[in-house]
Amino acid sequence: MRLSVAACVAGLFAFAPAVLAQAPGAGEQLYVAPPQGWVMGFHDQQGNVEVTELVPQGQSVQDWTEMLTVQLITGKPERSPQEVLKDQVEELQKACDDIGAGATAPQVENGYDTAIRAIACTKSKQWGKGELTLYKVIRGRERLYVIARAWRGAPFDKEHLPVPPEKTQEWLRFMQQVSLCDSRDGQRPCPGQRATPGPQFQR
């Protein structure tokens, strides 16, 4: 497949807006529904940063080909989602032999500033493997939320993405269903309950 990261991302954003889920209880809440069969491999909180990592069953956070990472950074966010993603690109430039980054796609979802961006690391200097990650950043009023869906495998050329179009489309549909709401705020309502809601990330 001969597609640049930018071309891939441009094609991905032809889908409908995110579908939000009800958040029972009170407060600002993030909803993430992990892919079927995925399990939690790591969870930790250091200071104001809480990190949860999930992988397909049979994989681990030490040995994985796909991973979902959710970061909750407590404290009123000062940076925009676009700035956060720009910083992520700069960090990966230091950690990778080469990178490719799609255009940032900012939007407002349920009253919150969000942005999505795909970033390819052709070969990690630390792990010697290539990685392709789709990020979604949401700026809440109480914390910043960073959600990342990643693939890791053999090093690759950034003009030849290592995953098929169906996989990148699946990732985007997944990110569109990641949602933030606040049951205390009528301007950021929590919609009706799903039949099978994903786990809550609530603090």
Description of the structure:
With 203 residues, the protein is of the alpha+beta class. It has one domain: 3-Layer(aba) Sandwich (Protein Transport Mog1p, Chain A). Helices cover 18% and strands 37% of the residues. It contains three helices and eleven strands; from the N terminus they run H-E-E-E-E-H-E-E-E-E-E-H-E-E. The strands form two sheets. Strands 2, 3, 4, 5, 6, 7, 8 and 9 form an eight-stranded antiparallel beta sheet that branches. It has a three-stranded antiparallel beta sheet with strand order 10-1-11. Strand 6 and strand 7 form a beta hairpin. The protein is globular, with a radius of gyration of 16 Å. 33% of the residues are buried. Mean pLDDT is 83; it is low at 1-24 and 193-199.
CATH topology: Protein Transport Mog1p, Chain A
Helix count equals 3
Mind telling me the C-alpha Rg?
Answer: 16 Å
Q: How many domains comprise the coordinates?
A: 1
CATH superfamily: Mog1/PsbP, alpha/beta/alpha sandwich
Kindly name the structural category.
alpha+beta
User: Sheet with the most strands?
Assistant: 8 strands, antiparallel
Separation, N- and C-terminal Cα atoms: 42 Å
- The helix content, as a percent range, equals 10-25%
